[in-house]
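Hey, can you fold this one?
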Amino acid sequence: MSLFGQDRSFLHALPAADRRSLIAEGARRVYEPGEVMIRERDTTAYVLALLSGWSVVSVGTERGSRLILALRGAGEVVGDLAAVDRRPRSASVTALGRVEAVAISGDRFRGFLAARPHATSLIMRQLATRLRSADVERRALASETVLQRLAARLVELAERAGRRAEAGTVLELPLPQHDLAAAIGATREAVAKALRLLREQDVVRTANRTVIVIDMRVLVLLAEGRARPGGEPADESPPGV
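Sure. Predicted structure:
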């Protein structure tokens, strides 16, 4: 499972001249925390090139809740799928904190790609990465426990958006429990129970919208299904033995 895009974002992978040209095609916008930047099912086709801040990509479910698909940060583009296939938005994008972006019309974005095969290749690679990630996500939802999925998310957040401190690794993204639940396809109650278990085993420490990973080794083992709660090795014997 992965909430993040490729290690090198679309904007940062572009040659400097192309990056400047793309940004010049659009208009600067600022989004406040919680503001919807792109709305699922809308027929708009503009693309947002993110300059700073973090945003959450999510879809609504039939139960009225939402499932978080990804986190997108500076250097990445969102809304590119609708610009390319000209169909309604497949997901919503919401500002997690204050976000600065450049809004580029779908026509201008398509023209930019048409004139630059390298940029088109980068977009295709980005779409392929997201498709593969979606396949992995479906497999995880079908086969992994809530605790295992939560541990995997926390490991990823610690590695990609963590800050080393004396107490451990502090997750810099202020994701409340309901967002953590939405990021692993679980209920808030199930995530609260899993977090309580991790706290009791001194694997993590939590505060208001803050998670500190104390024991990364055990968290990784839990994410990989190689440890039980309490840090004990998982039974690797074949089923039925």
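The longest helix spans residues 117-143. Let me know if you want another pass with a different chain boundary.
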